[in-house]
Amino acid sequence: MMNMPLGLLALSLLFSILLAVHVVRTGREMYWLFIILMFQPLGGVVYAIVHVLPDIFGGSTARKLSQAARESLDPTREYREAKAACEDTPTVRNQSRLAAAAAALGKHDEAEALYAQAAQGIHAEDPALLLGRAKALLELDRPGDALAVLERMGDDPEARSPSTAVALGRAYEGLGRIAEADTAFEWASQRMPGFEGLARYAAFMARNGRRAEARDAVTEMDKRLAKLKGQFQREARHWRDLAARALSEN
Hints:
Elements: H1 6-26, H2 31-38, H3 42-57, H4 59-73, H5 77-88, H6 92-104, H7 108-118, H8 127-139, H9 143-151, H10 162-174, H11 178-189, H12 196-207, H13 211-225, H14 230-249
Helix pairs in contact: 1-2, 2-3, 3-4, 5-6, 6-7, 7-8, 8-9, 8-10, 9-10, 10-11, 10-12, 11-12, 12-13, 12-14, 13-14
């Protein structure tokens, strides 16, 4: 900041002061004052994305930007808040929220146990809980158990969702049921928003001797990536890289 021209320095200070006032008046956590004042102007920009823009514009895009900025600054915040809420009121909703937060941090044992605990009584066949548990079991390399959970979804419409098809594909592949895995992955890749469905299918093809098709899928993802920006591009690149790694390893 010391190398800034005087005019830009003055604007940065004014920007930071205004945001500091916003922190105090809106009752935000006081650590934001430190971030804003010590890391000018980047700290102020992050605060604006997290707290000011969503208040002004609302909408899903602003909320996604806010969430991404929060996670970058404090990746365990959602887990801590969800854990506190669950300990205070252990409802199915709070257990599910904590399970999702645990899974996001790679705590798949904890996530699986929480989903299993939540899926009791009238919630025993809840498709969201079953899918969450199945995904955790897949991450724990337990495809047989994951498939058993997914099969409990029966004819529920959620069982025909692309996310469920991806989970089925992963379970089938883990059990060596390649033809069934191919059907599930292909179906999901044609219907799932974003890059996960296509990336999972490309990785599957790479692992099963279909390198040319996998390369074509990665090329398609590269073309689509060039049209994305910001957080959407970062998320898409994560899935594209998953497919590319499978291609390079097989």
